[in-house]
Design a protein that fits this description.
The protein is of the alpha/beta class and about 550 residues long. Strand 8, helix 7 and strand 9 form a beta-alpha-beta unit. The protein has a five-stranded mixed sheet with strand order 3-5-4-6-7, sandwiched between helices. The protein contains 17 helices and 21 strands. Bound molecules: 2-acetamido-2-deoxy-1-O-phosphono-alpha-D-galactopyranose and zinc ion. Zinc ion (ZN) binds near residues 66 and 287.
Length: about 550
Amino acid sequence: MEFGDVQLTGLKDYQKVDEIPIQYGTAGFRTKGSRLKHVIFRMGALAAIRSACKKGATIGVMITASHNPEEDNGVKLVDPMGEMLGPEWEQYATEIANVPDSEVGTALQKLTKNLGVTTLANSRVVFARDTRPSSPILAEALEAGIKAAGAQCQNFGLLTTPQLHYIVRCINSNGEYGKPTEDGYFEKLTEAFVKLRNIRKAKKMKKLETYKACLYLDAANGVGAGKVPILQSKLGELLQINLVNDGSGKLNHECGADFVKVQQKPPTGVNMAPGQRWASLDGDADRIVFYFIGTTDKQFHLLDGDKIATLVAGYLKDLVQATGLSLNLGLVQTAYANGSSTRYITDQLQVPVACVPTGVKHLHHKAQEFDIGVYFEANGHGTAIVSDTSYSSLKKASQDSTVSEEQREACDLLLSVIDLINQTVGDAISDLLLVEMILAALDWDVEQWNQAYTDLPNRQLKVKVKDRSVIQTTDAERKASSPIGLQSAIDQSVAKYSHSRSFVRPSGTEDIVRVYAEADSQDAADKLANEVAVLVFKMAGGLGEEPKLH
Ligand code: NG1
Ligand code: ZN
């Protein structure tokens, strides 16, 4: 089988296991690990073609299924600046993944020809994987695919998803973004953290009274768990991390950021004392949520992506103001953002806020419209990005002797904060350090942070349907445009509850329809979510039993 001028050697070892179509969705391909060998082999070749189209820039490939169960796996491609794969290539990925085994070579050959690629010998692909049992064998398939295409490759072994994104950007910016290694990653982040935390000492400010440098961290038994000791070794007493779900248990099983966010409860089996600050990563450490048990009410409180976004945006707003530069700061959310958070951002923070469809690529893209764009999904995936021109103005002002000393200091501080942030993609480790740094700077405990606003009670449900594509949405997924009649039925249900909102959308990562509802009491949110789930079940071809209120 010919592909360009190389043989697709090894293809026989990477044949389809079934003919079920597979699609490159919001987070790449995701399904049972046992179905992915051929897809990943083909993605190795596709990454090589992508690299050639980007003039030999290095492309990244990550093998992970994030917060999904242990038996799942997935693959996604990382573009040269560490961003998600360009949208037109998602289509190529889907086509290549689905062609019959006998046509793989021809399909790849046709693609290279259409794209004007003449050689893959200068293509470079780097890759990494998470801790799933199926990941090593899939990494072998990937390497075989890259090599079959004749490209060069480097295997980074076990990394978090954001670490790989960071490394890709470092390589392609010739080290300007940092050293393209795991060591370089930790060095950049922790140096910035240590510098920011020590400012208090340097300025002889009064000692911290409320903030306690102690965090309890659930690593979801994922790839992040192995990274925490490295992080800890560089932080010393500035932050003590007590690790649970450290990799000895089952990945994402009753633990991790997704479990805590969706179930709105602590990971199973942990012992939380009131007032302790807890956080959970997801399986590939690109999401984080915080939580605690109230010292007075003894209730569980969740500080999700919305609460992180508001903390970060509030801090950055003050800092930007102190620089004296006119940089416009904006925040990007999705329909899943709690209504209270959006109100708080608009009314209290007075920061412009935008709503985009689910999927990090949409948030990232929108955030690029601001000088400094903060974006977070409610589930804890997010980061902040700074435009090149804003970064240059900050650099310039920090060294400009005509600028006041306070303003220069603020510029310098903001530059260090930018170093602490992984701008390529949401990064749980970077977000963890950012939150801890801000809480220390404000001398806040977790309860003070939580007081910014009170979440409207909410509920997320999943409905199994025959074909989830019958649900179509508009208005950043807040309205259903198909099937006809569904939206007006949802509107009627919503009208029965006060301060309520509900929407439905097909998941991009699971074969289900997601239902979201919020209202002024948990009981009302639960009832509304259930009513809407029943509507989806009835009007969109539900499978199995009709949803019931629990
Ligand atoms: P889907 O399955 O499309 O809802 C989920 C998350 C997204 C995003 C992707 C990728 C929710 C409601 N959805 O997508 O925000 O993070 O996974 O991991 O959290
Ligand atoms: Zn993830």
